[in-house]
Amino acid sequence: MKVETLTGYEFEILNRNLAILPVGSVERHGNHLPLGTDTLIPEFISEKIAERLNCLILPPVWYGSCKAMRNFLGTFDIPDEVLYKYLKCIMVEAHRNGMKLLVVINGHGGNSVPIAMAAREAARETDISILVVDWWKDLGLEALSKFTSTGHAGEDETSAMLAVNGKLVKMDLAKSHPVQYPSFKLYSKRLDERLYEIALTGDATKADKEKGEYLLNAVVNDLIKLIEEAKRLLAISKQGGFYEYKL
Length: 247
Ligand SMILES: [Zn+2]
What we know:
Blueprint: H1 8-13, E1 18-23, H2 37-53, E2 56-57, H3 80-96, E3 101-106, H4 112-125, E4 129-134, H5 135-138, H6 141-144, H7 155-165, E5 176-177, H8 189-195, E6 202-203, H9 209-234
Parallel strand pairs: 1-2, 1-3, 3-4
Antiparallel strand pairs: 5-6
Helix pairs in contact: 2-7, 2-9, 3-4, 7-9
The structure holds zinc ion (ZN).
Zinc ion binds at residues 29, 37-38, 108, 152, 157.
């Protein structure tokens, strides 16, 4: 259930223990994917999870930290320190509204560090527990291994977007731009400019809807398992016994 569609009374009487927060970006994805791709996909995953677990979906965080694609029109880049504080406020407010386990489904690489900073602090300062996933690299890995390549607006993300809403994808503008990512952490504007020359990495021309459905189905199944595992871990006290923590 999407929180923004509920009345206050409905929200009050519902079980609010488990909620999902989709976090994305408004960012250039080649010429063929919508600017909201990084939010639309986590929103779709959230809806599938909520159907299965009957939980709440908080309104998504649309704007993200987008350094690498900043030079392209259509990218809105939010500074990390602003995003981290904003996310932390949402997490603390989720706790104040009765949520015990918050699942953050992130759709954009630049958000990973601000989300981690926010989650660490919110979990320290309140009693909320926060499960964070980067959907494209933490989930559905077996399905992902069947793709010929991965990348920003590439075969995997384009396939996923075709499965979410094909009307928003302009496959006639899809391109192939194979790049070699370094196997280590190298922070460099120079490198970013080369990698993201056309705001696309990998081969978007190989994307199709069936591959996207297959990937997102695996992502949803994997995330359900993680949520169940998190619930199990949270029910175990230091002594190894169980205490009252129903989710
Ligand atoms: Zn993306």
